[in-house]
Structure formats: structure tokens, C-alpha cells
Amino acid sequence: MKTLKRIGAVGGAVALILCWPLAVGQVGQKIVTDGLANLSNDQVKTELVSYERGYFSSSAVTRYTVLDRDIKRQLEQQGLPSEWVINSDIQHHAFSLSAVSTFSEQTHIPLQLNTQTRLNGSTDFQMHLDNWFYQSKGEQPFTLSMTASSLQGTASILGEISYALTLPSIALNFTNGEQVQLAHVYGEGKGKQEKGFWVGQHKITLGEMTIRDVRQATRFNLNHAMYEFRSSMDASKQRFTGQHMVTVRALKTGDDEIRDAIFDFTLGDVDRKAFTQLSELYQGGRTLSNSLINQARPAIEKLFSQGFSLTLNRLALTIGQGELEAKWQLTVPEGTHDVLHDPGALFSVLSGFLEALVSQSLVKDYPFIQQGVDQLVLMEMATHNEQGYQLKVDIHNGLLVFASGKQVPLTALMMPLLLQ
Q1: Pick the residue with more confidence: 223 or 45?
Q2: Residue 134 vs residues 112, 177, 185, 205, 289: alpha-carbon distances, Å
Q3: In the beta sheet, which residues pair with residue 200?
Q4: Is 256 exposed, middle or buried (0-12, 13-18, 19+ CB in 10 A)?
């Protein structure tokens, strides 16, 4: 009897080993099918054209179709397809699947995607683009040259993604002689798509960007720029906070040069549903028609009734020998109603502050600023010393309260702008 049990155990193990590649292939097909279903949205349609499962390997054909009319039109204007078919060769391993994917029809694009998918659905990916030259066929023909680039990262079955991007060099050359060059583009990010919002962080750095005119004279030069985006949602997934930060070491246009520029802005605790509705209404550069405004009214009212905050955490830059620094915050409290019918009611509940410093050197270099800041000093809204002009304002109960103690109704400043 013991011998029979041993033989049965060995036989079961052999059967499991023999069937395991088929099991891995079956799980792999489900992962691919579910993954494509999760990728489809109102902008891109994804579908599985075919999936041929073998013992040690499988092959899949997938199709990606652009649905967004604006993006589709732009692709067509540049002579690019709006539908992409991908061939994938999939290998079955003991506890994972590996795949090599390439374009089925656009074979002239030297792009290859390598993936390693574990049976829990987590996927490591590496996309590599060899040196590529592209010639546009649009109304304004240009050529695009890119050096070998890569994108790699990990995507979990829960939708969490981390990535790293490397683009050493990009050059755009137009037929009239104009040229745009970008160098040392790097990116990284981590997060997930959650209820229509990206929750996590992105960071893109740019070593240099140069724009030359038809005579090859430099009209624009940007050095060491960085853009970073951080976002989060509250525990109930109903409020969204997003922070945008841009830094630039040097920016030169003609004879003007800006150095050490920082722009750090936060939109805080905004109602997710109302913000999504407004974004969908205004996306694509749609004009502000009466019909569109009427459609947006309920979302605007909901946005303000739930409350939110706008914060300029820091604005700083150097122009020549002059410097500018500023920060401010505005908070709309929850329970603010009828802002479209009575804007004055909004001004009476706003709270926040404003601080700004303009150096003496900046005022000296740009005389047109002098008149404005001197007027603020005369009105006891700003102070002046050897360092420059300083403005400090607190906002509460519908009043602007300056450091001097002077008070000005907020409506006195805002209503003329709204009427205009």
C-alpha cells in the first residue's frame, strides 16, 4: 500500500509538471484579457484580436484605436495612424510569462516592448526605441530625429505604476529652417489612476531646450528645467489635492534672461466629481458658449459649495540683478452657495493672505514697475526700504487688511474685474 501511495504521489507530481506550462498559459491569457479591458477608456479603445495558446509559448495580436477626435485629427494631419496593431510573442516560464511585442504594420518604427509578468499579475516592462528619423506630411512639414530612448518600470494588478524615462536627444527641423532641440530629458513617476485622477507623483527634468529661427539665431534657450506633480485623495476618495512645481535655472529670450525661477502651486481639497465634470466640459479647447456655461453651472456651484483652497506656495525669480518673491493663499469655505448669482457673497467669506517682495534693483531696471509700487506705498498698501518694496495682506470677512492697518473691501477690487 505504501508503495502504491509513493507511485501515486510521483505520478501526481509528474502530471502537475507536465500540465504546469498549460496552466501558466491559461492564467497568462486571462491576465492579458483583463489588462486590455482595464486599459480601454473614452480616449483609447483596446481589444484582443487573437490569442493562440501553446504548450511552452503563445502568440497574441492586440489593437489600439484612438477615439478622441482631437487627437485623432492631429495624428492624421501629421500622416500618422490612429490605429495600432501589436504582435506579441509570449513564453511560458515556471511562475511567470515573458513577452516581446512589436508593431505589426508600422515596422519602420524601431520600437520594442519587453515584459515579464508574474502569475499575480504584476508586470515589469521595458520599452526601447532605437535611433529614429521621422518625416511629417502635415501642412507644416518637419523632420523628427530621436536618439535611442527607453521607458521601464513596473505595473501591478491593482493599477499601481512606477516608471523611469530616458530621452537623450530630440530634434525638430522645419522646412523653413526653424529648429527645436531638446537634450537630456528624464522622467520618473509612481502612482495609480483612481476614480479618474492620477494619485501619486511625476517628475520630468530637461537639460536644455533651444529654439532657432530661419537664420539659425537662438531665439529661446532653457537650461536645467524641472516639472513635478504630486497628488493625493482623502480617505473617502471624494476630495483631490494636486501640487504643481516648476523650477528653471536659466531662461533666455532675446536680451532678457530669467534665472533661478520657482513656481509652486497647490489646488487643495477640491470636490472630485465637480472638478471632473468641469474638466470634461472644457477639455479640447472648447469655446465658452452660453450653452457650455449653462452646462457648467451645476458643477461650478457644487465645486464652491464643497469648498477648496488655492495656494501659491512660492513664486521666485531673478531678472538681471533684481529679484521677485511672492506667495498667497485663498480658501473658499465649505457651504459657499449661489456664487454665480451673487459673487459678492463669495468675497465676504474668502480668507487667505498675500505676501510679495520686489527688490530695489528690479524696480530700477524696469521703470514701468516704479509707478505702480510707488502708488501702493502712497496708499499705505506697501512699504519701502533700501531692499525694495514689500506687500503684506490678510484676507478675512470680505476685507483686505494691510500691514499698515489700512482696510479695503475685497469687492472694491474684484467687482470691476468681473464687470470687465
Answers
A1: 223
A2: 17, 17, 19, 24, 39
A3: 191, 231
A4: exposed
